[in-house]
Amino acid sequence: MAKKKKMKFAAIGLGWIFNTQKWIFRLLKRAEIVAIVDKNEDLAKRRAKGLRVPWFTSSKQLYENEVDFDAVYIATPHHLHAPLMKEAIEHKKHIFCDKPITHTIEDAEEVIKLAKENDIKIGINYQYRYDPKVYSLVQACHENLLGKILYGKVEVPWYRDRKYYEQGKWRKYWKSAGGGTLLIHASHSIDVLLWALGNPKSIMGKYDTRLHRDLGVEVEDVGMGIIEFKSGALVQVLSTACTKPKKGIVRIEIYGENGALKYKGPWPLSYLRWYGIQRKRYRLDTDGFIVFSKILNGFIDWVWYDKKFYSTAETALTTLKTVLGIYRSSNLKKEIIIP
Predict the structure, then answer these.
(1) Among 262, 260, 280, 284, which Cα is nearest to 271's?
(2) CA angle 92, 106, 217 (to 5 degrees)
(3) Helix or strand holding residue 47 (H, E)
């Protein structure tokens, strides 16, 4: 594909996530938002005024008006991901979507199939993959610096208050969110584990709604899992939306026969500590200072030049299957074997 000056995006969903990322599009020299969509007309108008772009209240209007753009950026509630991606594929638009890929395995598999049939690329915003410290952790595992991986642990002790659930009521319900703290928060770290250690062999899990039930929250605010990988490594996962004070810390630790790697994040305060093995430098060959700008640049390079991209729909599907496996194990009260 011939080099273009900028990749043109139409943004669908203008809530909290979009509001935190829109300025990165402005700073990025290789991407621009040329149209926005949200069912909330007042919100769409406000965002459009600041961005100086046309606005629409439905994706149907966007396509009917024949706006010139290359890809959609989807930042909507989870249950809307699949229909919006199918619509984009129908109109031959590439897709960059916030995680998770969808909230059901069936939807994700259908979207992936349709994308392949239509030569459309789907990137999922598991942006921890573009944190240089995470990249180093993963590459060290791939190069077997730790030797045999024995065990690991993930901790995501976060806190979400009433405002969080009231601003996005869809986050309360299984039918619209697909899950709670494990899917919304911990799936970033689970995605890193899968990248570093490979495919899971079995999963055991337990979850509950411990603190937010009086707000009408159905999904879990505490979740735990034990993942056995095909290598034999065991990893414990703990995620919560109940922890005070609110710090937003993420810990990923991997222990091998030669030493250990301990990551604490998220970016921009992330660091990686090496124990028992010599530190090695790895270079993440993607431009950008902020992790979201890195993953966006990676997506653009993938679409334009077919350069390797680390967060595809296929990798996101494996992450979704793992999280939903924890839920299924808890519901059935038994270990889930992964074929």
Answers:
(1) 262
(2) 110
(3) helix 41-51
Smallest CA-to-CA distance from 116 within 312, 297, 298, 305 is with 312
Beta bridge partners of 271: 264
| Range with the poorest average pLDDT among 15-24, 83-92, 225-234, 267-276 | 15-24
Q: How many CB atoms lie within 10 A of CB 338?
A: 16
Q: In what order do the strands lie in the sheet with 71-74?
A: 55-56, 31-37, 7-12, 71-74, 94-98, 122-125
Could you tell me where the beta strands, DSSP code E, fall in the chain? 7-12, 31-37, 55-56, 71-74, 94-98, 122-125, 149-157, 200-208, 222-229, 234-240, 250-256, 260-265, 271-275, 336-337
Q: Cα–Cα distance between 68 and 63 in angstroms, integer?
A: 9
The reply to whether the predicted model has a pTM over 0.90 is: yes
Query: What six digits make up the tokens of 11?
Result: 């943004």
d(CA 333, CA 205): 8
Q: How large a percentage of the chain has pLDDT more than 70?
A: 99
333 contact partners, CB below 8 Å, separation of at least 6: none
Count the neighbouring beta carbons within 10 Å of the beta carbon of residue 151.
Answer: 16
Examine the pLDDT at 1 and tell me if it is beyond 50.
no
The pLDDT of residue 161: 94
**Domains and their CATH numbers in the chain:** 7-126 (3.40.50.720), 128-274+310-337 (3.30.360.10)
State how far the alpha carbon of 218 is from the alpha carbons of 33, 169, 222, 259, 319, in Å: 35, 11, 12, 41, 22
Would you place residue 248 in the very low, low, confident or very high pLDDT band (cuts 50, 70, 90)? Answer: confident
